[in-house]
């Protein structure tokens, strides 16, 4: 079939771009939630710690 | 006037959806998109007939055209939320505007990648400086500037205002792209113009199925992107909270 390689390349590029975006977004989300959990635990530790003037 | 009010309240209601519900919606649309992704290649490659002049390469249209529709949709959502942000100064509107701009940019990249792969065998050139292609490239550059403004400037009201203005100006290019076929002489084929697509029923069905799949994919990506941006907003809030507590503790210690 003529020009089959162009069609295959177009389909591959589209799926690859969508997949890459999803992976980047997932990685970004994971990093943000890790930071949020870290900061939340720091804040709760701070609340339980003795006050410097006590 | 009432219609306009009803129209923007739809977007206002959309902005009220919380992170967990957005993730749920993203999953639902993601599943729908996945089903579509499994079905539509068969519809486009086997179900729809082969165009006589262009041959099999014409089948790129089944993903190129829906990508262009989703590009318009992304930038349109950005346009509406940018207006709402400038009007009401609600942070949620900025989050939705910047997220939809990014998703629109993703689909714009898909248009710019799939277009030349169709053009090379048909026009014997990867790219021609045709009005429609040039306007799509200008739109891409405007929203790349938008994304850079978001990434490299400090999160402030001023930066959000600049982005909102850029989002509004950028979208004004979209109708020009659509009507450039009528306004100027262009090489680009007119696939869907007016009420009828001008396609045979088998091709029209495949194109419609691909467009619906792409719409589900668009919603899945947009809702997930907004949810990530909301989480980032919470992260900034927590960082500010820790800074405040450190400052208070420092004052108490001295």
Please outline the helices and strands:
The complex is a heterodimer of chains A (54) and B (254).
Chain A (H helix, E strand, L loop, with lengths): L3 H45 L6
Chain B lengths: L1 H14 L3 H29 L13 H28 L2 H33 L7 H22 L4 H15 L1 H11 L17 H53 L1
Could you describe the 3D structure shown?
Chain A is 83% helix and 0% strand. Chain A has 54 residues and is an all-alpha fold. The radius of gyration of chain A is 24 Å and the shape is rod-shaped. The model of chain A has no long low-confidence stretch (mean pLDDT 81). Chain B is mostly helical and 254 residues long. Chain B has a single domain (2-228), classed as Four Helix Bundle (Hemerythrin (Met), subunit A) (Up-down Bundle). Helix content of chain B is 81%, strand content 0%. Chain B has eight helices and no strands. Chain B has helices at residues 2-15, 19-47, 61-88, 91-123, 131-152, 157-171, 173-183, 201-253. The longest helix of chain B has 53 residues, at 201-253. The termini of chain B are far apart. Classes of the chains: A mainly alpha (54), B mainly alpha (254). At the A-B interface, helix 1 of A face helix 3, helix 4 and helix 8 of B.
